[in-house]
């Protein structure tokens, strides 16, 4: 067996096609997929092993090798633009179809949301080994072939039904790509995902990285520009870099937590109008966290005062100005319950957002890792008849294509703001 196949660097991926799209895959020597599996497919590297699953005939065609890195719209006109996450491929020897492909892939624990690790790839490669070719020669051929060489083969289908369940290594599990959320309830047990940290999970108020990942994959394409004007420990920067998006991130903290974050006040963003494809904001929710000693930190203003919302409205205006028309702003915020007083921070902020943006949707984010999520606080909440904050709002807003008309009939609520010090 060659050195390459012995090393853990062996990766593979299954692209899918239908009876209608298969011919184009073979004619163009190009495999493609939609945004649904784009995040996994785009991680395929030159030299990885590829297979093509025909969803209609349930055949798995192999073996192919990636001849380029995966990319976005390598051939824009292929499949009429339906599958823009693409890779150029070369067959390694004769193309062989394996039957009962879906059952086989299920048995191997192979899906299309992540790359196959070494264990699964080796098992599949073994199934494609021609019966007259010894194992060593087969692996040598697969790793050294540039696709032009041919092998004199006689292929006999092998049984895979006796395969045991594949145990994936930690390394292979870390290759797992997050999935696009399908409902409006998002719950991320861990702050980060994948092999490298995203942001700093010790940073007060750090954002779950998968939340940003979901916005990035829903509302941008590779190469698009994402801006985070209050980026704290830089979670947005790390997610965007890994997903091939450009990112500019600011924070008021002097100095920012890392050198790739620009110190700036979010109420004045140094970018031109109509320039950005996605803005993400995880703003302070009031004065509950001491982020830094910078006097302009909005986290020093109580969310029980009107001023808090006035200052955040200045941030909204800037987000609106820099966004391209039709593009999205995601804003994460939580309510407050302090000293027996509830403040609907989310609703108050949302009311301001509506002045500039249209609503795409509102997502509930389960709050995890809170200091108050302990048995002691749970008991207090029950005994003293209050609730601990269990969720945050993610407001997904769109900058209208046309200037937002003032709606004369829209009713505004006259909220009463309490100063905490004046309370009895
Ligand atoms: C909830 S934290 C953001 C967490 C961040 N998304 C992360 O994952 O690390 C809010 C951030 O807003 C910043 N901030 C507060 N006032 C600001 C202002 N006027 N301009 C820019 N950033 C500000 C704070 O310094 C803090 O880092």
Which range does the strand content fall in?
A: 15-25%
Q: Which structural class do the helices and strands define?
A: alpha/beta
Write out the distinct hetero groups bound to the structure: S-adenosylmethionine
Q: What is the topology, as strand order, of the major beta sheet? A: 7-15-16-12-11-8-9-10
The CATH superfamily title of the largest domain: Vaccinia Virus protein VP39
The CATH class of the largest domain is Alpha Beta
Approximately how much helix is present in the residues?
Answer: 25-40%
Count of DSSP E strands? Answer: 16
pLDDT averaged over residues: 89
Verbal overview:
The chain has 424 residues and is an alpha/beta fold. The chain has two domains: 145 residues, ph1033 like fold, CATH 3.10.590; 238 residues, Vaccinia Virus protein VP39 (Rossmann fold, 3-Layer(aba) Sandwich). The protein has twelve helices and 16 strands. The strands form three sheets. It has an eight-stranded mixed β-sheet with strand order 7-15-16-12-11-8-9-10, sandwiched between helices. Strand 3 and strand 4 form a beta hairpin. The structure holds S-adenosylmethionine. S-adenosylmethionine (SAM) binds next to strand 9.
């Amino acid at each position: 067996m060659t050195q390459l196949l012995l090393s853990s660097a062996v990766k593979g991926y299954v692209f899918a096609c239908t009876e209608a799209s298969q011919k184009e895959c073979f004619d163009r020597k190009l495999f493609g997929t939609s945004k649904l599996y784009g995040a996994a497919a785009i991680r395929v590297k030159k030299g990885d092993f590829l297979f093509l699953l025909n969803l209609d005939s349930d055949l798995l065609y192999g073996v192919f090798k990636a001849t380029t890195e995966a990319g976005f719209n390598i051939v824009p006109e292929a499949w009429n633009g339906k599958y823009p996450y693409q890779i150029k491929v070369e067959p390694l020897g004769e193309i062989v179809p394996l039957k009962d492909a879906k059952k086989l892939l299920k048995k191997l624990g192979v899906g299309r949301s992540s790359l196959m690790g070494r264990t699964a790839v080796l098992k599949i490669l073994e199934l494609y080994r021609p019966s007259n070719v010894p194992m060593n020669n087969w692996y040598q051929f697969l790793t050294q072939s540039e696709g032009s060489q041919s092998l004199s083969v006689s292929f006999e289908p092998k049984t895979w039904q006796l395969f045991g369940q594949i145990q994936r290594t930690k390394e292979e599990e870390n290759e797992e790509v997050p999935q696009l959320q399908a409902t409006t309830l998002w719950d991320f047990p861990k702050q980060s995902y994948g092999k490298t940290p995203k942001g700093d999970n010790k940073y007060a108020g750090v954002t779950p990285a998968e939340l940003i990942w979901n916005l990035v994959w829903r509302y941008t394409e590779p190469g698009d520009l994402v801006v985070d004007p209050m980026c704290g420990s830089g979670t947005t920067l790390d997610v965007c870099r890994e997903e091939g998006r450009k990112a500019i991130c600011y924070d008021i903290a002097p100095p920012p937590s890392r050198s790739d974050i620009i110190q700036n006040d979010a109420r004045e963003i140094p970018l031109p109008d109509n320039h950005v494809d996605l803005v993400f904001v995880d703003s302070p929710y009031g004065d509950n966290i001491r982020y830094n000693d910078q006097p302009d930190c909005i986290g020093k203003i109580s969310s029980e005062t009107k001023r808090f919302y006035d200052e955040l409205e200045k941030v909204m205006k800037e987000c609106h100005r820099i966004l391209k028309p039709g593009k999205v702003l995601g804003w994460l915020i939580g309510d407050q319950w302090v000293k027996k007083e509830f403040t609907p921070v989310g609703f108050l902020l949302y009311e301001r957002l509506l002045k500039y943006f249209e609503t795409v949707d509102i997502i509930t984010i389960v709050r995890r890792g809170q200091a108050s999520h302990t048995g002691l606080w749970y008991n207090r909440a029950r005994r003293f008849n209050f609730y601990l904050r269990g969720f945050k709002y993610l407001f997904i807003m769109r900058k209208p294509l046309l200037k937002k008309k003032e709606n004369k009939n829209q009713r505004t609520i006259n909220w009463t703001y309490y100063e905490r010090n004046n309370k009895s």
